[in-house]
Amino acid sequence: xxxxxxxxxxxxxxxxxxxxxxxxxxxxxxxxxxxxxxxxxxxxxxxxxxxxxxxxxxxxxxxxxxxxxxxxxxxxxxxxxxxxxxxxxxxxxxxxxxxxxxxxxxxxxxxxxxxxxxxxxxxxxxxxxxxxxxxxxxxxxxxxxxxxxxxxxxxxxxxxxxxxxxxxxxxxxxxxxxxxxxxxxxxxxxxxxxxxxxxxxxxxxxxxxxxxxxxxxxxxxxxxxxxxxxxxxxxxxxxxxxxxxxxxxxxxxxxxxxxxxxxxxxxxxxxxxxxxxxxxxxxxxxxxxxxxxxxx
Length: 296
Known about the structure:
The N and C termini lie far apart (49 Å). The strands form two sheets. Strands 2, 3, 4, 5, 6, 7, 8, 10 and 11 form a nine-stranded mixed sheet that branches. A two-stranded antiparallel ribbon has the order 1-9. The chain has helices spanning 11-25, 76-80, 107-120, 133-144, 166-176, 181-192, 196-199, 204-215, 228-232, 251-258, 276-279, 281-294, and strands at residues 7-8, 33-39, 42-49, 59-62, 86-89, 99-100, 126-131, 149-155, 216-217, 238-243, 264-269. The chain is globular and about 45 Å long. Helix 1 (11-25) packs antiparallel against helix 8 (204-215) and helix 5 packs antiparallel against helix 6. By secondary structure, the protein is an alpha/beta fold. It has a single domain, classed as Alpha/Beta hydrolase fold, catalytic domain (Rossmann fold), CATH 3.40.50.1820.
């Protein structure tokens, strides 16, 4: 029997997810280019938004679990004001339009598809940004391929600084089980750190994430918090944003640990949850523009 890879539970499920993905994608600014980049672990769906100053180091965005590129809908306008080219990718092994073709067994392999995709696009150095599980992928990429990472931004990064709360594992299981929609809504709200009413608002991105949770089955290695030695190896300038309420990254204890990164700026955002990038998108965009300008 062959090794498992991430897959949709049925063809009908895949079609339902893809429809929701395209509806959500239509809420983003139109990208200049769309790529399906071949890597040793699968094809990586990537989008490029051209900046007005090609001399500036580009920005690479890595999404959270079950999110895909459309999760950045509210963030892209403010980030594009930086004048930098933006690249956003769907993760290999997760819901999205990337297609996994080989098993991902280790953290080094999780980092590999990111690096191979950037190499295929001719990006030698980038300002890498990851949210949630995308933060874990961004940290692993920076650990294994530091020369490619000009700066590292971790937004509520799960499994990087501390273990998530135990309840996260319970709700993650509930979110993918068959059953009443009310159960799934409560689970997705708990994981995202938002209210059930926000989940039920049927926004394009929320509908896409709900479809992903129902229809896609990932088969990825369980991340583990980085050791002190590994944190010390992340010597590039780093910006770490932690939610002040309902943090899945570890809250104040995660922030305290992040301050041990060699060149880190750590900020706890009061009144935010794990959905921090969407909740403070304007303020966060301004903070990141200043961070990148200070670290050319």
